[in-house]
Amino acid sequence: MNNNSTRTDRIREILERELAPTHLEIHDDSARHAHHASAKALGQGGETHFNVAVTSARFDGLGRIARHRLVNTLLAPEFESGLHALSLVLEAEKSV
């Protein structure tokens, strides 16, 4: 992965590679949170808050918490490098 890529690009690459989604939306919501003390403390200049929606067969048979844990594990390096908040809507291809 390109070191100059944006966090959005990195999140997209990880989720596409690991989840093969049929639907993927990533929205950088950092601007709405720039005034928060935590965002200022991170000094990242944005890319700290994201809304992500994924539909994937990888979620089939997994409950809501297991889906969230999976995505949070996949994106752990992003949390370690300044991702602060992640709002997730995770849907299976088949209903659980």
Key structural traits:
4 helices, three-stranded mixed beta sheet, 96 residues, GMP Synthetase, Chain A, domain 3, alpha+beta
What do you see in this structure?
With 96 residues, the protein is of the alpha+beta class. The protein has a single domain (7-92), classed as BolA-like (GMP Synthetase, Chain A, domain 3, 2-Layer Sandwich). It contains four helices and three strands, in the order H-E-H-E-H-H-E. The longest helix has 13 residues, at 7-19. It is globular, with a radius of gyration of 14 Å. The termini are far apart.
Describe what is shown at a glance:
This protein is α+β, with helices and mostly antiparallel strands. 36% of the residues lie in helices and 23% in strands.
What Rg do the Cα atoms give?
A: 14 Å
- Might you state the CATH topology name? GMP Synthetase, Chain A, domain 3
Which spans of ≥5 residues are poorly predicted at pLDDT below 50?
Answer: 39-44
Main sheet overview: 3 strands, mixed
Strand content: 15-25%
Kindly, what is the distance between the CA atoms of the first and last residues, rounded to a whole number of angstroms? 34 Å
What is the total tally of β strands?
Answer: 3
Helix content: 25-40%
The total of helices stands at 4
Report the CATH C-level class: Alpha Beta
Overall form: globular
Report the structural category. Answer: alpha+beta
